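To assess whether ligand presence alters the predicted conformation, the chain was also submitted together with flavin-adenine dinucleotide. Input:
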Amino acid sequence: MQIESGVSLKPYNTFGLPAVAHTLVRVTADADVRRVVDHPTLGRAAKFVLGGGSNIILTRDMPQVVLKVEVRGMRLVEERTDAWIVEAGAGENWHDFVAWTLAQGWPGLENLALIPGSVGAAPVQNIGAYGLELQDRFESLDAVDLRTGRSVTLRADLCAFGYRDSVFKHALAERSVITRVRFRLPRPWRAVLGYVDIERKMNETGVRDPSAGQLFDWICAIRRAKLPDPALLGNAGSFFKNPVVTPEQCHDIIGRDPAVVHYPMPDGSVKLAAGWLIDACGWKGKTVGHAGVYEKHSLVLVNRGGAIGSEVMTLARAIQESVYGRFGIRLEPEPVVV
Ligand SMILES: Cc1cc2nc3c(=O)[nH]c(=O)nc-3n(C[C@H](O)[C@H](O)[C@H](O)COP(=O)(O)OP(=O)(O)OC[C@H]3O[C@@H](n4cnc5c(N)ncnc54)[C@H](O)[C@@H]3O)c2cc1C
């Protein structure tokens, strides 16, 4: 277990926000977490679990003990007739893991290609993109309890997955360090299509029956064209969740703004495109201080250079207020504000 003091977190968050961790511990195995729990001073201190820092907004220095998860390893656990079960250490890079499974001939995660961050954080927010969510491929995970130091294995029913949500944002928030995640990749493989950008690629290329590798390449290309690369322009991906409203609320909004982008959900509710709402309020490309709204995608807030967390949150609140003022809808931030 490596304990460091006064560590700058700027290189460890994709928004490039400045903050210092008073204490940072690199976790490479369950035993490291247990050592922290049993430690005479660290054991009692508040903790923050850090993965790749692609879904956090740092607004201040961190008095908590930052546990930087660096558990490695990727392996095939079991080859069944109906599925491949694969496992990755929580500290593995998510995209590298997706690429590795494909290279091994175990497709199924390709729609989630190029999502930044670590494997261990993927269940926390039940990452999703292009018609697929982590929960659709989830088998189980291992986590260490930060109060008892005990390792547990959780299956899907205990993870309470929802839209960008899980038990790790509620009852188990700041309680667990996820150390390994297992995935069930169904056999035979079937492409997940139907998403509008994928349909467009199918029409452009004339390929009606893409392979997993082809879908992976398409999704990488679609994402690169649409989203800023955090290595070049600091950001945390979508800054707000798409709000879910009742059909009556949606009908009311359509009455006033017929062009509102909306998607009926299986449970009868309606999901509104938060990016469209922000666009409609005139925010695209705007800058406040050193933070701004990305020119190509209003749902993404960016670091124009030298931004601090409070500036980002000031911009976020201004957007929330104008969307509320015009549509009566409260946008909820997607990243964790620390
Ligand atoms: C350009 C860009 C595009 C994105 N696109 C998408 C997208 O399409 N779909 C999507 O769902 N998300 C997207 N995101 C958000 C982000 O990539 C995901 O939320 C990702 O899973 C975060 O991983 P991370 O390791 O960076 O987590 P961090 O930012 O480090 O942490 C996020 C949260 O998870 C907790 N956490 C992290 N690791 C662990 C662990 N091992 N155990 C317990 N808790 C942990 C942290 O405490 C924190 O609360 C995007 C982000 C960016 C920058």
